[in-house]
Design a protein that fits this description.
The chain is of the alpha/beta class.
Length: 225
Amino acid sequence: MKITFYGHACIGIEVSGKYILVDPFITANPKASHINITTLKVDYILLTHAHQDHILDVEAIAVRTNATIVSTYEVASHFGQKGFQHHPMNHGGSWQFDFGKVKIVNAIHSSSFPDGSYGGNPAGFVIEGEHKNIYISGDTALTMDMKLIPMRTKLDLAILSIGNNFTMDVEDAIIAAEFVDCDKVLGVHFDTFGYIVIDHNEAKKKFFDAGKDLMLLEIGQSITL
């Protein structure tokens, strides 16, 4: 399983010969100006919620790739009504795709489309594929529901929002890593806007002191599990 950071909360996942893109917000992110969305291979687009900084590039990518959009019922149906391939899900449900199993889990946040219309409830994902399991928190506050995840799935990586203000901060993300029983963490949702700028060295040290490994990838950089 190969994981690539495309900036903000956007993650690419290559697993079992399929290409997954999570929360595509690339073209309006100056820090990701070197990423060309017209060259990305995408079979599935997973969306945690409807905010613009998570869905901005969905339509442009889906038109070109015919990717299947996977999200909660309201978000997936929104794009389905526009003619895009989609697979609606909801909290607690899981589905076996051709790349692995996806489960929708709780997130505490808000969700509305850029025009202000209802975007359903926000979500996170647990993905199991190629004998590797990852948790994508989405935009969320720290929640006790995270403790349910390791009851079903032993994680190899937790992808956690750490930028504060709109989501968890570093300290809460450390607790979240404890709740999901995963010491290997990839940080997302930081530095894009002034509200969520973090001190990288301080964040890594806090995780290290807690016995955990925080990775802060450069945009376009990848890791392999």
